[in-house]
Amino acid sequence: MIQVEQLDKEFSGKKVLEDINVEFEQGKANLIIGQSGSGKTVLLKSIVGLHTIDNGTVLYDGRDFHRLKKTEQKKVRQEMGMLFQGSALFDSYNVADNVRFPLDIFTNQSKAEKMKRVAFCLDRVNLHDVEHLLPSELSGGMKKRVAIARAISMNPKYLFCDEPNSGLDPKTSVVIDDLLLELTHDFNMTTIINTHDLNSMMGIGEKIVFISKGKVEWTGNRDDLLSTKNETLHSFIYSSKILKDSSN
Ligand SMILES: Nc1ncnc2c1ncn2[C@@H]1O[C@H](COP(=O)(O)OP(=O)(O)OP(=O)(O)O)[C@@H](O)[C@H]1O
């Protein structure tokens, strides 16, 4: 579980996050949603330590991340898997080398052990016989799967995904969402996903945190979403053309 308490973040005097209090639950897909500029990315980066924070705490299963010693922080970092927008694969590395990269950096495993783990991770994301291909030889959905395989290579307790469906068609997006949910359950990870995608919210939103103007405006789940009485959330979700059309 990741608990965020009384977190504030500002840039050059401009408050971007204010008094954020929220729990991201273990074994669940926790979604952060909100309009462009509401503070989702800054929140995700503050949680993983890519931003310093001005006030508050981020507890990783009770460990106060921002106040840990560097060596302890490094341990928690190794328990994090990250899936960046656009997959962020190394173009000149083949699939196996991309997935193996965190193992090369963070472990002393033998080459055979690493290759066994790479094969396991690729199997878990349903990719077969692609180890020797370069990213340029893969479809967008396959690249995303490789990036997911890399993100789980270190058997993380926490998985962070920034807009995992960006650049994917709707059908592939659903497949990737389902895969992220399945891995979250199978590995009992605390997964946090930043998304704009209403299909994702309805499909895998086991816990949803709605951010508006740098504050937590609402929390709930996919079943609560469409019947919300929260006006800001209502106007956010019903500004989507898909929902407007289906509610007519
Ligand atoms: N490094 C930075 N320096 C100064 N301001 C920043 C920085 N990063 C983000 N901001 C500001 O913080 C606010 C929140 O940005 P953030 O990127 O978190 O929004 P978002 O909800 O993720 O938007 P989007 O959905 O478009 O990615 C914005 O006003 C942005 O300009």
Automatic annotation (TrEMBL):
GO terms for molecular function: ATP binding; ATP hydrolysis activity. It comes from the Bacteria. This is Glutamine transport ATP-binding protein GlnQ. The keyword rRNA-binding does not apply. It comes from Salinivirga cyanobacteriivorans. Residues 2-238 form the ABC transporter domain. InterPro entries: AAA+_ATPase, ABC_transporter-like_ATP-bd, ABC_transporter-like_CS, P-loop_NTPase. The keyword Ubl conjugation does not apply.
